[in-house]
Write a structure and sequence with these properties.
The complex is a heterodimer of chains A (about 350) and B (about 260). Chain A is about 25% helix and about 25% strand. By secondary structure, chain A is α/β, with parallel strands linked by helices.
């Protein structure tokens, strides 16, 4: 216990001292992750509205291509470097970020609502005694107060709430992955890379990283996929569910599943969309044999385009769909597979 | 070994329907359930107890007095006892204020080796209270855990992350938030139901926890809700019925091409 250091900001904070926007980048094996470039889009927009600097915080041992973060929109990169940061560990990550926040005093920090962001941001918020809003889909600046307005879906996406952090700093939010496009490279941009080396209690931890195992069964993770083909109980059995996988493979899509389909063992839990699974918002989701319980709809109704194929014309899924086909999935999907194959063949020819 | 399981009482969702016009959630019953992922956490605690007989499981919940039902249900499923943190002065708390109060409830309930809870609740869906509680208890937090191995002096967790799994070793005491893969949920047992009937579950308000009022509820919450609105859910749906021809499929593909999604 003695190794765990509480970096909370005890002194009263002068809000006016806090300036600039931080985004929390992510790396794995030294490679900067795509979510970082989405955060640059968010951060650049907010920093330009406020007329302040945008900084990207990266933690790692060695990181390739840090200049790219500047070319894509950051004015500064704070690279907190130590072997302990090679892989994500909540303790040293949150201690180091909190220390940087205390030194640099940003008024806003944004991270991805990823497993890393949703773990480290609550720790930093608690250490800094400030507010944090989870899983935002919209961030704007209030024109009068200049406060960050953080909008997020709640209660299964049925209510949107706009939240602010008026009296403490920084104002912190995690944003849903894929809720912004990746920022473009602008080779004329310049900026500064600042390497931070912390010692002592900041980098000490009782947490020991053992290994990372790539999930080979999950060719495309559903949270990052542009297209998701999802199947439900209407696929009848594991054999029937293979149609979902076949269409997904053909379209370069990820496979999604309802809770029922996962509980029946047709798909594994990382594929589950919905309240007790993942929340996704791809460009396109095709729901096959899915009735559309709130459990499922809550996890996908913010998708750009929703297509539903179901034999029950009264199925709730059609209420949120842009395009619906009433029919037996075992008739319609094989036809769709043939049609997509033809379309692909034509595109190649 | 002492395990604490955090449970939250949430509205049941299976009886919920969408209003077809407004797209707003309509609750057809007043049913409440234990947050499903907390049930998985409880099941994992019970699994650990089955191989480590010295384990005691205490359920801690914060909520209205009616949340006692969730605690009793957890005891019926295999927990040994529970504590309910409940009081009007806690109403309106955001995740920071909530985490402080739950952490105080845990501290007051005694020492612990392991805290288990669901990775998020199905109502608020913030998934940030667990890590904040760990901070206020000054213990490490491991999140999104799908498998847990108990060692002599700590745990090895397997975290399910975006592209795979991470294995991390942490000594006791530690807080672990879990996803659904951790354990299959169980059922109340006859002996459990009897225990639930007889076990006295204390209910602690701020009189027992002793916070300064300024730390609680809205005043203790750094965040403020500015407004709440209903998103437009119902879309203008183009509908086709299968009729033996390829027309619906052709229309679908040209629709997808027009939307630039294929």
């Amino acid at each position: 216990m003695s190794m765990y250091v509480n970096c909370s900001i005890a002194e009263a904070k002068n809000i006016a001292d806090y300036k600039g926007v931080f985004i929390l980048g992510e790396q794995r094996d030294g490679k900067i992750q795509a979510v970082t470039f989405e955060l640059l889009t968010w951060g650049r927009g907010i920093a330009d509205t406020l007329g302040c600097e945008l900084s990207c915080v990266l933690l790692g041992d060695k990181i390739n291509n840090m200049e790219e973060v500047i070319l894509r929109g950051a004015d500064k990169v704070f690279f907190i470097q130590d072997p302990v940061f090679k892989n994500f560990l909540p303790q040293p990550y949150s201690n180091a970020i909190t220390r940087l926040v205390n030194e640099e005093k940003p008024e806003i920090i944004i991270s991805g609502a990823t497993t890393t962001g949703r773990t480290v941001m609550p720790l930093v918020a608690a250490k800094a005694s400030t507010g944090l809003t989870a899983d935002c889909t919209e961030l704007t600046i209030d024109p009068e107060t200049k406060l960050l307005l953080q909008t997020r879906p709640a209660i299964g996406g049925n209510i949107m709430a706009t939240i602010k952090t008026p009296n403490t700093r920084p104002q912190m939010a995690t944003v849903r992955p894929r809720s912004a496009k990746q920022s473009e490279i602008d080779t004329t941009r310049t900026g500064e890379i600042i390497v931070k080396k912390y010692e002592g209690s900041t980098i000490m931890t009782v947490e020991k990283f053992l290994e990372f195992i790539i999930d080979t069964t999950q060719a495309v993770s559903i949270e990052e996929a542009d297209i998701i083909i999802a199947g439900g109980k209407g696929m009848k059995n594991a054999q029937g569910f293979k149609l979902v996988e076949e269409l997904a493979e053909l379209m370069g899509a990820a496979v999604g599943a309802t809770r029922d389909a996962v509980e029946l063992g047709w798909a594994t839990y990382p594929h589950q969309v919905g309240l007790s699974g993942k929340t996704v918002s791809p460009k396109l989701i095709i729901a096959l044999g899915i009735a559309g319980k709130i459990q499922f709809l809550a996890g996908m109704q913010t998708s750009d385009v929703i297509v539903a194929i179901n034999k029950d014309p009264e199925a709730q899924i059609f209420k949120v769909a842009d395009f619906g086909i009433v029919g037996d999935v075992f008739d319609v999907v094989p036809m769709l597979i043939e049609a997509v194959k033809k379309m692909k063949a034509k595109a190649i020819a | 070994m002492k395990i604490i399981v955090l449970v939250k009482q949430v509205p049941g969702t299976d009886s919920v329907k969408l209003d077809p016009i407004t797209g707003v959630m309509v609750r057809t019953g007043k049913d409440t359930i234990i947050n499903p992922l907390d049930e998985n956490a409880l099941a994992e605690a019970i699994r650990i107890k089955s191989t480590h007989p010295d384990v005691t499981i205490t359920v801690v919940s914060m909520g209205p007095p009616s949340a006692m039902k969730a605690i009793k249900e957890a005891i019926a499923m295999g927990a040994d006892g529970g504590v309910l943190v409940s009081g009007r002065e806690f109403a309106g708390s955001d995740t920071i204020a909530t985490a402080k109060v739950i952490a105080a409830g845990i501290k007051k309930s005694g020492t612990f080796d392991l805290i288990l809870c669901g990775e998020r609740a199905t109502d608020g869906e913030t998934g940030q209270t667990a890590a904040m509680i760990a901070h206020y208890l000054n213990v490490p937090a491991q999140t999104y855990v799908s498998a847990l191995e108990i060692l002599e002096d700590g745990v090895i967790v397997r975290r399910t992350v975006e592209s795979g799994f991470e294995r991390v070793q942490v000594p006791f005491p530690v807080l672990v938030s879990v996803n659904k893969d951790i354990s299959d949920t169980g059922f109340p047992t006859l002996s459990g139901k009897l225990r639930a009937k007889n076990v006295e579950v204390p209910m602690w308000a701020n009189a027992e926890l002793g916070f300064d009022k300024s730390e609680l509820g809205l005043t203790g919450s750094p965040t403020r809700v500015v407004k709440i609105f209903s998103p437009k859910l119902s879309r203008d749906t183009i509908m086709f019925k299968t009729n033996g021809t390829t027309k619906p499929i052709d229309e679908l593909l040209s629709f997808l091409v027009s939307k630039d999604v294929v």
